[in-house]
Amino acid sequence: MRKLFFYPALLVVCATASAQSYKRIHNRSIVVDTHNDILMTAADRGIVFDRDLSGKTHSDLARWKKGGLDVQLFSVYCDGDLKNPFAFANREMDSLDAVAARNADKIEKVSGYAALINAVKQHKIAAMFGVEGGHMIEDDLAKLDSLYARGARYLTLTHNIAPSWATSAADETTKPNLPHKGLTEFGIQVVRHMNQLGMIIDVSHAGEQTFWDVIKLTTKPIIASHSCVYALTPHRRNLKDDQIKAIAKNGGVIQLNFNPGFIDSSVGRKEEAFLKKHAAETDSLMKSGMGDFYAMSYLYAKYATETNSIRPPLSMLIDHIDYIVKLVGVDYAGLGSDFDGINFTPQQLDDVTSYPLITKALLERGYSKKDIRKILGGNFLRVLKANEAKK
What we know:
This protein is α/β, with parallel strands linked by helices. The chain folds into two domains: 30-265 and 312-388, Metal-dependent hydrolases (TIM Barrel, Alpha-Beta Barrel), CATH 3.20.20; 267-311, no CATH class. Strands 1, 2, 3, 4, 5 and 6 form a six-stranded parallel sheet that branches. It is built from 18 helices and nine strands. The chain is globular and about 55 Å long.
């Protein structure tokens, strides 16, 4: 009879030890997310993220702490056809500055690696900006300098609607008669100037020709701030094997995006069916003045049971990490969630409190503590430090 009681008890002990183990690893790591769109959401919806936004957004200040996040790069984004995008970028930056000023004991805007480490030691979230789209510098290097001075530590060279000086993945795959592909002369100046500043070049959203032009030019490691693996999910925003190998050779890092459509190739077809089913309601929401992104977010939340059938499992995100690690090594993968810039998330990753489940999944896949710490943030910190180095 003792054995009948012993084995269940042993299982409980092992499960408890496992839970403590992944939580301990997570809490002792520096967890970095290189892409979160809460600034866009705050600007569009008139909300502030040092309040409880549970059920409304993926992110807020208290939930970042609950999820064990240490470093957040806040995406500064606006549509590529918006007038005065530089001014809009500064408005978004103002919102983070205001939150940091009100919560100096919880979050601190930092200028570089040393300040970041100091903030983390004080148990604060270290905050930086990542400007998502070269159109926001308005073809002016002085405006690039200004954004850098305000705390932007990477620039995503293009968004879907690209600047005049670089082509995006959307451009290169959907527009047959482009006036040019890749970087123009001014684009070359931008890349060189970023290297001089110590500002990280981000190739997420970049077209393949732009990507290869950057690889040839850059003297510093680059990032893909929120991209996944093309071989697993052939989406134009994902990276092909030769691109992954080139980033590894460059010493850069690929920060994995949580966007379900980037990690599961079946999602696009399922989304199309969902939106077709709810087309009339979508049209009504759009006519009411709700933008397409927020209309879709509303519908996915309203029909949560249907949405859950579209959401891929967390394991599929880990598959993308595994693929990169097997292809080029553990030094070249990280996390770039795209929280609050995506309509719905993979299963289990409901919001920013879910980061520890990634640590748990990596541990279950057999990753060592050292390697998990690299993926959670160490790899990005290496790239940040390398970009700051004077050559």
